[in-house]
Amino acid sequence: MSSLSEVEEAEKREVEAQKAWRAEQFKQRRIDSRLSFPFEMRLPVATSISFLAGMGLGLSHGSQTAGLRFRAEHAHKLPSTSTGWYLYHKSKNYHMAMGGVKEGIKMGARIGFWTAGFFSIEEMFDRYRGTKDFLNTVIASLSVAGVFSVWTITSKLAHETSPILSPDANPILRFFLKHTFYRQFCAGENAAEVRKTVHGLKNLGFKGVILGYAREVVLDENQAGNLTSCGDYEMAEACIRKEITPWMKGTLETVEMTAPGDFVALKFTGAGSQALFDLSQQADPSPALKEAIDSVCDLAASRGVRLLFDAEQQAVQAGIDAWTLNYMRKYNKKTPGKAVIYGTYQAYLKATPSVLASHLAAARKEGFTLGVKLVRGAYLGSDPRHLIHDTKTNTDNAYNGIAASLARREYGSILQPTSAEETIFPSVNVVLAGHNHASVRKIQALRTSQAEKGEQQIDLVYAQLQGMADEVSCDLVQAGLAGEGEKKIDVPRAYKYLVWGTTSEWEGCHGEGVGEEG
Questions:
Q1: Is residue 31 pLDDT above 70, yes or no?
Q2: How far apart are CA 344 and CA 328, in angstroms?
Q3: Which own/partner contact pairs does 43-47 have at CB distance under 8 Å and 24+ positions apart?
Q4: CB burial readout 455-492, b (16+ within 10 A) else e
Q5: Phi–psi pair at 422, nearest 5 degrees
Q6: Confidence band (pLDDT; 50, 70, 90) for 209?
Q7: What are the pLDDT digits (tens) for 360-381?
Q8: Mean pLDDT, rounded, of the chain
Q9: Residue 99: its pLDDT value, please?
Q10: Helices and strands in the chain: count of H runs, count of E runs
Q11: For residue 252, what is the enclosing H or E element?
Q12: CA 413 to mean position of chain CA atoms
């Protein structure tokens, strides 16, 4: 018995000694740690506090912004009854609460992320250098600040005139962008790089590409209201030499890079100030610009390449619609059922169904195939808010409804005819551009049903931006490969939308392209 009690006593002393040792070790770690917190405690505590602080700021800012937006959007339709005012304020409070929560989560996540980055980098240098001093804190601060600055200014680089922040003038900045963002999203800077990229995509199973020249001008409201013509003589010659001719050469080179059956995306704003002025005034293109556009269209038609006239901001969109219809009349009659020229229609605009319906009516009356590229929208940051659908759900419904009507060649509840007599649907070719998997699957299901029933199908392809929505693209590619040779099944054709050009030119157009395809 005595030996057993001695063993138990020894075990107790050993356990107590281990507890004391662990307590001493933890105490020493706290003494040695920054802020008296070991890193595994310091990181979650600091991140949580930062998240809560950001959440508070975001709640305040987001709710105020949502409230102001709600008042502005409903200023033209204020209620006139007490019940109406009750529902108005109830809806406003709901939007403020939701806006505050969303912005709070976003801001909290951002601040928490950068805080976690700071403490992690600081700890990394503490361990690497074997000492905890102020230098490591400074290095961590500068590292986080530097990464944050690069992330913040990247979208502004293309519009900078300073040589320090111009990718074309700053070789260090150009190297950084070229080997990071540019490589992910762009086809290349010259014909050899572009052909290599396109060849790789087609080897993966893509049926083709949509290639665009990365040159565009985006206007703010003040610029849109102050557009002027290049005038005559010397000023006009300068416009042609510096703006129209480079755009024409770049676009012609793009067409020459592209194989028959592929597309070239054409942005009129890339042709400079005269094009912007003509479009904003809804005037015909100037003689020099008309000659440039004609040469591009003629080359594309002769090579079997199709042209997508991209949508742009509302300051110039009405002019683009007029030019697009004129070129459709000229080039989309040559081969029945085949379009060379496509217009772009943005589903997030409330007016798009009526605009498209009027173009369909013109195509039927004048006997040409209407080329349609359907997107959700690209210029949310510059287009007037009242022209855009109030909710994403409304935009989704518009996109899906228009797509279904085009695929069936039938008018519906979204895409309605211009008049009761307008019941015959014209010939259409469609590029369904989008990153929304649900919308793509709806059209796939509809076209599969058409194939099973032996119904006539329109010429339709799917498109996503290079470097984005690869899960959508890959599903389409796999479905296309699996369906080859099969009867009574729709074989989807997937295309990738790429731009080519210098890093600064790519930066200028990339943001709009993302939105447009989304």
A1: no
A2: 12
A3: 43/116, 43/119, 43/120, 43/123, 46/115, 46/116, 46/119, 47/112, 47/115, 47/116, 47/119
A4: eeebebbbbbbbbbbeebbebbbebbeeeeeeeeebbb
A5: -85, 80
A6: very high
A7: 999 999 999 999 999 998 787 7
A8: 83
A9: 84
A10: 18, 9
A11: helix 245-257
A12: 28
**Phi, psi angle pair for 150, to nearest 5°:** -60, -45
pLDDT exceeds 70 at position 180: no
d(CA 515, CA 344) in angstroms, rounded, equals 13
- DSSP H helical ranges for 130-154: 134-153
Tell me the three-class secondary structure of 376-444, residue by residue.
CCCCCCCCCHHHECCCHHHHHHHHHHHHHHHHHCCCCCCCCCCCCCCCCCCCEEEEEECCCHHHHHHHH
Provide CB contacts within 8 A for 162, sequence distance 6+: none
Burial bucket for residue 39 (CB in 10 Å: 0-12, 13-18, 19+): middle
Q: What are phi and psi of 32, to 5 degrees?
A: -80, -20
So what's the pLDDT on residue 504? 60
- What is the reported pLDDT for 160? 53
Greatest distance between any 2 Cα atoms in the chain = 117
Query: For residue 80, which phi and psi values (nearest 5 degrees)?
Result: -120, 0
Count CB-CB contacts under 10 A for residue 509.
25
Residue 326 dihedral angles phi and psi, to the nearest 5°: -60, -40
Both structure tokens of 220 = 């703010």
CATH architecture, domain 181-517:
Alpha-Beta Barrel (3.20)
Is the pLDDT at 165 greater than 60, yes or no?
Answer: no
Q: Are residues 222 and 386 in contact, defined by beta-carbon separation less than 8 angstroms? A: no
Burial of 108 (0-12, 13-18, 19+ CB in 10 A): buried
- Here the tokens at position 94 are 């709901």
**Domain ranges across the chain:** 14-159, 181-517
Q: What would the two tokens of residue 120 be? A: 């992690």
- By residue count, the chain amounts to 518
Q: Are 447 and 407 in contact (CB under 8 A)?
A: yes
Instruction: Assess contact for 346 and 377: CB atoms under 8 A.
Output: yes
Encode 90-122 in three state secondary structure: HHHHHHHHHHHHHHHHHHHHHHHHHHHHHHHHH
**447 pLDDT higher than 80:** yes
- The HSE-up count of residue 219 (CA atoms within 13 Å, CB side) is 24
* pLDDT tops 50 at residue 14: yes
| Closest listed residue to residue 491, CA positions, set 483, 502, 503 | 483
